[in-house]
């Protein structure tokens, strides 16, 4: 009997969707050999099984154990190149996904990995920063700050010790691309961090990984060990070492100063800036804290040149963005495209509309600190510039669609309760304001609110925006205020009859 | 704490003791203790503080700050139900209720038992196959209320 080589993703979400059940059911079957790869990110098709054909990979979708004869017989597969969800994407950072075994360094290299590092090795630290300036890359963690500016500060700050820290706290609900990178292409993150280390003169790096991502932490540790063994981290007598550090479930620890506090083992509370971490960060030394996706974008920029990166996207948002679709869309998954497509197009072309039987009501972009968009606001281009103009944020690229069963008052309460739970307690507007906000919304829910409650919520939101120490308090009111703005009747109809008549 | 736990803890703290110039790291130590004992009992705070050369208050402060550090021992199986936005939009609330009902039926009226502890969690990063339930570190996706009893059967 011949054995058919097939590919099955080993990513957490693919396993959760049933990949593990397939692997178990088929283990020991002589007709099939399973190669466990990263996931393409078309999660609505997972578990998806692929095999090689003379014309490229073919795939079977939502596979059940009984489908084995079809796959082995080559019956009913779809060419991967013809899957619209994937075909319409522009994949650079996620180009390897679905193709390689995540922990195989040789595969990473054979698909262009380490070319960015090779380019960086031939450049001076200043020239690396210059390349990033030309690329116009902005941080993907939420604040969208120009990467080169941070690097330049860290580079120019004199210190015998500097650090590079990857922010893998990925706390925004609806986001999972950092997890995918760490599980699916860990050497890319290592390469990006190492390039940064060379540019600023750092010899130690940390990956601050949230507690909820055990598989990502395992993959990163394995990849780091492998990189060490292959002397990848020690070339040109430039010593660099990396360590994975696990967080413990605090959302605010994604904020860079809180993250560094946590990395030192303390309570993860936010510190006032300046000083910025690039001047004085971990243990008081210059530290670059960047998001995992940001670091993972850097190898391609060095390999292809900053100008290549700057040629993609819109005026103030260059390159591609990893959007993560979730909620009630029909086709949830990872979408890497250049900035600029409208939100409506993203939802239609990639999301495939709403899940069967549900109607669109609103979409939350940018996690708990982002904004709600109703149907009438979907023509906004997905890029930092347009979102900033609309008072919204793209954040880490999470897009969660809600259907018409969604109760907006409850959703608003959920967001305020989240902030109340997660506030680090350092500044009063966030610590007290979020609790008051939650209470007001609970009053409204209980039918005890008055028109005054809505005014109070607005006023509270404005105060929190203006006076909070970090964006948790500063942006916590956005989902609430945008819900009130776009669905006013839902709030009004909950107010006590007495006051609404007045 | 059982004697076995005491030896395990002593062993953990011995290997976890910071070697200069490494600075004592309270969070890291607590996570290591938790992975050994399953939780961090309040009565080991002083011992940890002593080993790290910090105050009891500093250790207690870190222990109480982080949601993933637990001072109570959980049941044999820890069930965490995601209440993040994507899971909620996909009726994760019904899954949570089904789990609570099921656990109650199995064990009596408390949702906390020797066999199961049920908790809510915020986004698990598994949104594309939501709703998500995490049991002992295993992720389950697209969970519907009707799956719950057979799912829990697998965890005795
Ligand atoms: C409450 C809060 C939570 C945050 N969570 C994250 C996070 O989970 N991941 C992340 O990369 N950045 C997060 N950030 C942004 C970081 O403070 C920081 O701007 C970012 O890590 C810098 O990386 P970048 O330049 O690559 O965007 C958060 C910010 C705030 C205020
Ligand atoms: S919202 Fe539940 S996994 Fe993200």
Structural descriptors:
A: alpha/beta; Glutaredoxin; Rossmann fold; Ubiquitin-like (UB roll); five-stranded mixed sheet; 22 helices; 16 strands; B: 156 residues; 2 domains; four-stranded mixed sheet; 7 helices; 12% strand; elongated; binds flavin mononucleotide; binds FE2/S2 (inorganic) cluster
Describe the structure.
Chain A has four domains: 4-87, Glutaredoxin (3-Layer(aba) Sandwich); 105-310, Rossmann fold (3-Layer(aba) Sandwich), CATH 3.40.50; 320-403, Ubiquitin-like (UB roll), CATH 3.10.20; 408-500, de novo design (two linked rop proteins). Helices cover 42% and strands 16% of the residues of chain A. Chain A has helices spanning 12-26, 68-73, 84-87, 105-110, 115-121, 125-135, 147-156, 177-184, 186-200, 214-229, 256-263, 292-304, 306-310, 343-350, 384-389, 408-422, 428-445, 451-467, 471-475, 477-486, 488-492, 497-501; strands at 4-9, 32-37, 49-53, 56-60, 78-79, 163-168, 204-209, 241-246, 287-291, 313-314, 317-318, 320-327, 333-338, 360-365, 371-374, 398-403. In chain A, helix 17 runs antiparallel to helix 18. The longest helix of chain A has 18 residues, at 428-445. Chain B has two domains: 3-65; 77-151, Glutaredoxin. A four-stranded mixed sheet of chain B has the order 2-1-3-4, covered by helices on one side. Chain B starts with a helix and ends with a helix. The interface between A and B is large, with 56 and 41 residues. FE2/S2 (inorganic) cluster (FES) binds next to helix 5 of chain B.
